[in-house]
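Researcher: Let's walk through a ligand-bound prediction step by step. First, I give you the protein sequence. Second, the SMILES string for flavin-adenine dinucleotide. Third, you return the three-dimensional complex as structure tokens. Ready?
Model: Ready.
Researcher: Here are steps one and two:
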Amino acid sequence: MADADLVILGGGSGGYACALRASELGMSVILIDKDKLGGTCLHRGCIPTKALLHAAEVADTARESEQFGVNATLHGIDMNKVNEYRDGVVGRLYKGLQGLVKSRNVQFIEGAGRLVGPKTIEVNGTQYTGKNIVLATGSYARSLPGLEISGRIMTSDQALNLDYIPQRVIVLGGGVIGVEFASVWKSFGSEVTIIEGLPHLVPNEDEAVSKQLERAFRKRGINFSVGTRFASATQDDSGVHVSLEDGKSFDADLLLVAVGRGPNASGMGFEEQGIAMERGWVLVDERLRTNVEGVFAVGDITPGLQLAHRGFQHGIFVAEELAGLRPVVIADVNIPKVTYCEPEVASVGVTEAQARAEHGDNIATYEYNLGGNGKSQILGTAGFIKLVQIKDGPVVGIHMVGSRMGEQIGEAQLIVNWEAHPEDVAVLIHAHPTQNEAMGEAHLALAGKPLHAHA
Ligand SMILES: Cc1cc2nc3c(=O)[nH]c(=O)nc-3n(C[C@H](O)[C@H](O)[C@H](O)COP(=O)(O)OP(=O)(O)OC[C@H]3O[C@@H](n4cnc5c(N)ncnc54)[C@H](O)[C@@H]3O)c2cc1C
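Model: Step three, the predicted complex:
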């Protein structure tokens, strides 16, 4: 007999969202985690990094205050206090989440779990059998072959907990995590160099956005090398020494390895139970079913975008699927993405290059420059909103760069997911003066009636 309707392995974004929704739908739920409820996002990812980024913004505001006629002086950064503030934020959310899980009658089991039967997970010698199983064991920070994580060479896990500001730091990897840490450290006063093997920073974004971010980082004095691959790194008492394949070398106090995250799915019995996997990822179909009947997988262990809100959505999806609600499949391409460096990058849908590859010349694009947006002028930020449209059809991609542009992703994702045409958005009113107006202006222009923009 089953111990619960649903047994979930992993209490991160994917696992706990599934637990909450399943219990809301009347299922009995056992949720297992070997560490703290909330997973990577709450304890080692989204929340603590965004707290650091906010402290970084405060530092920049103080440093640049004179430009607004305010005479403030930045005396320094007290990392212990910054960490205290960060821990306070995480701690309050953690407490709230624990209360929430308890209040929904989810049985939380602490301990490392292992799949010992297709529907059974063993934790500390006790077996829990579910009518259905959800695997949600998340991801870990990867390194490169031969690059050992120790001492001055670290991943985001260690970098988040530094109690000092490195004078010079090298960030290996110009993706989301790399540019966010680079941005924080620069604001805190470090000399920062990013090394990215691909031709651009944030290489998964539309190329125009990458180029604008590079301009902005250059202006901020963040150094970067793109297009040449990392060769090796050594460390000694004086620091880390990094060489690239073209022979260039860099020295710093520490090296952050931000080259991506791998699935945390091995050694837990998945293979033994016949779960189909590829290069460590758990394979699922679009309804998040593994090949074993009654076993689902959600979040970072499945191939695709590694984002907390994708995990939430996956978790909710599986709970609703089990309740017979036939939830709508959400494709990765239409999941909103935000990179919270300064300036921020935000996007949803396809890039211009992806749209062109599929539709050839049957696309239209428009870039609305934030220079024409009152609120962006007030903030003193540069950037743009770029739209990608199927000619005479819907907007299929929105790409943004500029301070606070992450806040615009809400409307952007509605436009793309609701397959709105520029004319549909052009008739809607955007409040003045907000950065949100830039979204309206971009659509007005693409609909052939630009207001604060040249045709
Ligand atoms: C530095 C950093 C910044 C990030 N910033 C953002 C951001 O701003 N926005 C965003 O959307 N995403 C961000 N992410 C990504 C986000 O954190 C992940 O996409 C999200 O946490 C994935 O959720 P998950 O449930 O799949 O896995 P996880 O959150 O990793 O949870 C997996 C859980 O499973 C548990 N577990 C693993 N193995 C076992 C076992 N054998 N037994 C029991 N329990 C086990 C783990 O302890 C963990 O709690 C960031 C990640 C990092 C590292």
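Researcher: And what stands out?
Model: The chain has a mean pLDDT of 97. The chain has three domains: 4-141+262-332, 153-259, 343-446.
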